[in-house]
User: Fold these one by one.
Assistant:
Number 1:
Amino acid sequence: MQGPFLLGTIRNPVPASADSWETKHGLIRDQKYRVVNAFVDADGDSHDVGEEWIFICGMFSKFDNEIIVCIRREIDGDWKIPLIWNSQSQQKIIENFEKYVVKASVARME
């Protein structure tokens, strides 16, 4: 996990497209989410069940084959959660993100 960055410094002025990763997984910008199945990101940081944050946006780096999940934690600012899209890394998480993170208002263990 990379950060913290000053609160409000991470922004993506481009709206999510109909075929973007965040749209395909039902993520809505500026909504609060909760981790319901723990996972480890590309930097080796754990995201434990119950962790909550506000989703800012998802970005894809085709050069690194990486999804960067941009989030805001009210207690300490903006962060980037890198996920590498290959079978030895976080491919399962990237392709099933809605099984790991859900809207906080409907969050429950699966």
Number 2:
Amino acid sequence: MTEVDVQSPEEFQREILDAEEPTVVVFWASWCPYCRAFKPHFDAKASESGARFAVVHLEDDDNPLWEAYRVDVVPSLAYFRDGTLAARKDGRLGRGLAPTELDAFLHQVLTA
């Protein structure tokens, strides 16, 4: 398992889009209570899996990654393969993402 932290568009390009390995990404922010509740489950799944995982920090509205990937709600999940967004699961406003939604997303993308 590889887990990387990404905070800028340059890091995103290098660590996600230019990566040779497919990567499961969670877009999140520390100020988001749903993200803080979701992150331990994401971390546990990342440590159990042989897949590559990344945490993309969207701490402020000025981060261009909000706009580039049209992230409206955090946490949101994305799966990148060969530099392309292959699958996505967005959180819901006022609810976030449930651990079962992460499990279903991982099953969808890692067994495809």
Number 3:
Amino acid sequence: MRIIAGKMKGSKLYFPKTKNTRPLKDLARESIFNLLIHSNNILFKFKNSLVLDLFSGTGSFGLECLSREAQSVCFVEKEKNILKILKKNIEKLKLQNNTKIFSIDVFDFIKKRKLNKNKYDLIFCDPPFKKDEIKKLIDLIAEEKLLKKDGIIVIHRNRNDKNIFPNYFKLIEEREYGISKIIFGKL
């Protein structure tokens, strides 16, 4: 696993040797970033953006954002063994000043707004494929006003999932890559 583009292009990332986590594959990650930057429906600007990486795992998505000049990334990951790898990746790339890490359940993090009062330009949600609480997650993001007015939510799911989204969630784009389905939307 490596950083695909930007100022840290080619940097290798640590990843777990176990199958307990499912790192986002380079091809899917590259496709997400291509759509964010080049799709006429999205046209996202990374420079100086604030990014929230939920269920962040080893941090490959958020670190890629920083490589592309995001201002900062907030990582939320509760698994202790994965958290160690995330911290190693941040230290390896010397990005401690541009990151915050919260070792807490994603839903608890969002509910406890005092932990983090930011509004984000981009929110990446990569829950375990077995979790099917996407509607609840989007409802909570909207309720707590975590996303900026023109912000984007990117959701990584299993392509066979039949996710139900709230009525106010505006689907912008949906793509499949192998077993993955990537959903782009706005509130």
Number 4:
Amino acid sequence: MSREIKDLTPDTQAKCKKFIERCKSEGIDVLITCTYRSVEEQNKLYAIGRTIEGKKVTNATGGSSCHQYRCAFDFVPIKNGKAQWANEAIIDKCGSIGESCGLEWAGRWTRFKEKLHLQNTQGLTMADLKKGKTLA
């Protein structure tokens, strides 16, 4: 699993950097917690809350997450040096900032909200990505 912005597609890298800069201009530091993850890593996350004890963290199996296509990243806001995993106000502000950078914020999803997830599909669907279509 990577936290490196360089592991994202070029357009997603640019939007991620813009997101970080805009958050900083609003007085919010953010830590990128995950960019690319392999199919195997995704399947391990999918197992949590299903075959491994814990709360479900994703509805995507390996190959069905934008992380495998290098067009998604997870983040956490930082305040006074501490990760703000549950600070809804700051997380929602970051989600809005992400949207202003041209990213899709998973905090708006209706089926399975992932408030600390942003992605850049450029209008491609998961079916498109699985068929080998690539982002510009």
